[in-house]
Amino acid sequence: MGAEGTPAESSADFAAAPDAFQRLWTPHRAVYVEAGHDAHDDSCPFCSAPSRSDDEALIVARGQHAYVLLNLFPYNPGHLLVCPYRHVSTYDLATSDEVAEMASLTQIAMRVLTRVSHAQGFNIGMNQGQVGGAGIAAHLHQHVVPRYGGDSNFFPIIAQTKAVTHLLGDVRRAVAEAWPTADADQAPTASPSP
């Protein structure tokens, strides 16, 4: 809100057809646009991510058959995606090794998020196929969404806006640093919530 209680930038001042959405401007996310992501690029982002640096691709862990990265459009801070390296669209097409490693990485993700961000619950799931709600239907990926008491407030319901409290780079760094190495215990102990 501006000084006189008006929106900081009113859409009424621009040439456009109004819609039902309010905008929460997040200029810090421009780094992902400026890094060259092309919305019309037909390449698979889950196939190209492993060839990029962990920082650039927001990857927190790499396994033999699958890897874990942050969701660019998180529901909550720490919203992770577990993806097989192989370009496969649905769970039934994944190999036994891919399925097993995705399950193991999901368990580790839950433990790490509980320790790092004190998650109190999780939503875990896969939307498969465009009709099933998958944003990227061509490449299988599982969502690991940490949940916290009171994380659903009036913003998404009334304002159709989601406020995300942490920058993606900061979350990636914290989760990656807490991820156990292959030599370390794969079950980090969860610390109690403050």
Give a written overview of the molecule:
- It is a single chain.
- The chain has a domain at 64-181: HIT family, subunit A, CATH 3.30.428.
- The chain has a 5-stranded antiparallel β-sheet.
- The chain contains 6 helices and 5 strands.
- Mean pLDDT is 79; it is low at 36-41 and 185-194.
- It is globular and about 50 Å long.
- The longest helix has 22 residues, at 96-117.
- The protein is an alpha+beta fold and 194 residues long.
SS-based class: alpha+beta
The portion of residues forming beta strands comes to 5-15%
CATH superfamily of one domain: HIT-like
Q: Biggest sheet: strands, sense, closure?
A: 5 strands, antiparallel
Instruction: Please report the distance between the alpha carbons of the first and last residues.
Output: 33 Å
The CATH architecture category of one domain equals 2-Layer Sandwich
Provide keyphrases for this structure.
5 strands, HIT family, subunit A, alpha+beta, five-stranded antiparallel sheet, single chain, globular, disordered C terminus, 194 residues
Helix-strand layout with pairing:
Layout: H1 30-34, H2 45-48, H3 54-57, E1 59-62, E2 66-70, E3 80-84, H4 96-117, E4 121-125, E5 142-147, H5 154-159, H6 168-178
Antiparallel strand pairs: 1-2, 2-3, 3-5, 4-5
Briefly summarize what is shown:
The protein has 194 residues and is α+β, with helices and mostly antiparallel strands. 27% of the residues lie in helices and 13% in strands.
